[in-house]
Specification:
By secondary structure, the protein is mainly β. It contains two helices and 26 strands. The chain is elongated, with a radius of gyration of 25 Å.
Length: 319
């Protein structure tokens, strides 16, 4: 089983504290006698908590007394182990984004079903997905509906959003609701996210004082209009400019589904998504320069841009 750098050793000590509520990585929820079990039969049920992803068929890797096994979660939430009564040591692993969980010796009696919660700790950085905005440019006035399936928590939408935005979009980019007109749709949310090792080996190093020129150059290559660039730069520019150096990585199109899925009807001819992931850095380092993918604005086109700041990078090692 893969071992991570951060391991949670379970005993009778608390793992995390939120206010006055203590959370343990593994905790007994209930123990009940099951009449249809024999005296030589027992059931462990493990309920998985705190996993935040879109996987529809989650699999837990676990070991019991050192023997490794796999279990597909029932209803994506729990799994059962039928076993003889006795004492057992467990280890649980989900994926590289979550810490492993170890148990002390756990005893179960014959004819009993013991239900435990597994509280996995996320090893990624909690970040805010900032100001994704959506522009729509149909070839003629068009009734449009837009749905956003956010991968995150505490989402905020503007204008008001209840399952769907419905409005009239014009070729000039005006979005006309019943009582108001907007230039774009807005949302944001909190999410656990970090770039993969492969992704973090490409991008750009930009001096803070050169932020505006850098963004103008890259967004022009991307095909954003002067107004779209102004919206982007006036939001992100001040944040980047206050740092001496920044590492910047752009994510495009399908990659942005990591943050949200967009469903638009009628379907656009072209949808272009660009997110900027950035971090302050202590010093310059070698990085493979990214290629900026251009937007196709022909037909009914849609643009979404957004971004997020990850914690300061003090050391980067490229293998």
């Amino acid at each position: 089983m893969k071992h991570l750098l951060i391991l949670l050793l379970i005993s009778n000590i608390s793992w995390a504290e939120h206010g006055t509520v203590y959370i343990f990585p593994i905790s007994l929820e209930k123990s009940e006698k099951v009449p249809n079990l024999t005296i030589t039969e027992s059931i462990f049920q493990f309920q998985v908590k705190n996993i935040m992803d879109n996987k529809k068929n989650r699999v837990i890797i676990y070991s019991i007394n050192g023997i490794e096994r796999k279990a597909r979660l029932i209803d994506n939430e729990f799994f059962d182990i039928r076993i003889e009564p006795g004492k057992y040591l467990f280890q649980f692993y989900y994926d590289e984004h979550y810490s492993e969980i170890y148990s002390d010796s756990i005893t179960i009696k014959g004819q009993y079903k013991d239900v435990y919660s597994l509280h996995f700790a996320n090893l990624d950085f909690p970040v805010a997905i900032n100001k994704p905005v959506i522009y729509l440019y149909p070839e003629e006035d068009t009734q449009v509906s837009v749905q956003v399936d956010v991968v995150g928590h505490n989402p905020f939408f503007y204008p008001k959003y209840t399952d769907v935005w419905e409005f009239t979009a014009t070729p000039l980019g005006e979005l006309k609701f019943k009582d108001a007109t907007y230039n774009y749709l807005f949302w944001d949310a909190d999410q656990f996210f970090k770039l993969s090792t492969e992704e973090s080996q490409s991008g750009f190093i930009c001096e803070g004082e050169n932020t505006v020129a850098f963004l103008e150059e890259k967004l022009t290559l991307a095909g954003l209009t002067s107004q779209e660039q102004a919206d982007f730069i006036t939001y992100w520019g001040p944040r980047l400019q206050r740092n001496e150096l920044n590492y910047i990585h752009f994510m495009f199109n399908e990659e942005c589904a990591a943050f949200a899925e967009l469903s638009i009807s009628p379907k656009p001819d072209h949808m272009y998504r660009i997110y900027m992931v950035w971090s302050p850095v202590e010093s310059d380092f070698f990085i493979e320069e990214q290629t900026i993918l251009p937007m196709d604005r022909s037909g009914f086109s849609v643009l979404e841009w957004g971004g997020l700041e990850q914690p300061r990078i003090e050391n980067i090692e490229i293998n």
